[in-house]
From TrEMBL:
<dbReference type="InterPro" id="IPR010428">
    <property type="entry name" value="Zincin_1"/>
</dbReference>
<protein>
    <recommendedName>
        <fullName>Metallopeptidase family protein</fullName>
    </recommendedName>
</protein>
<dbReference type="Pfam" id="PF06262">
    <property type="entry name" value="Zincin_1"/>
</dbReference>
<dbReference type="InterPro" id="IPR038555">
    <property type="entry name" value="Zincin_1_sf"/>
</dbReference>
Length: 125
């Protein structure tokens, strides 16, 4: 899949987020990278064979204090190659991208991994 085609999938994933949440996104950039960088892999202690579809880096909204400001945007990175390798077909890839975008945006709003997984289960039920 070309970078442009993948960017379109990510854009569709963002558009699938309910407007009430999109309006609340604050100081966050969503970017696409081929795969996690060596620095990200070390930081996350990724082991060989582990798959990472996306990553949120920043200060979640719920942890921002009254003096928050003047900082670089938070960053949500969607990793193209791991998603392509995991997807069985184009529809599966679209679903993985949509779920990954949702998952990382949930972290931006302050949800930890357990809370995100619980919310995902409810969303998919």
């Amino acid at each position: 899949m070309t970078k442009d085609e993948f960017e379109q999938l990510v854009a569709e994933g963002i558009e699938a987020i309910p407007p009430k949440f999109l309006e609340l996104l604050d100081n966050v950039a969503i970017v696409i990278e081929d795969k996690p960088s060596a620095e990200q892999a070390v930081k996350l202690r990724l082991r060989h064979g582990w798959t990472l579809f996306g990553l949120y880096e920043g200060v979640p909204q719920g942890k921002r204090g009254p003096y928050y400001g003047g900082v670089l945007p938070d960053k949500i990175t969607i990793f193209q190659r791991p998603i392509e390798q995991a997807a069985r077909n184009p529809e599966d890839m679209q679903e993985i991208v949509k779920n990954t975008v949702w998952h990382e945006i949930a972290h931006h709003f302050g949800m930890d991994e357990e809370e995100v997984r619980e919310a995902e289960a409810k969303r998919k039920a």
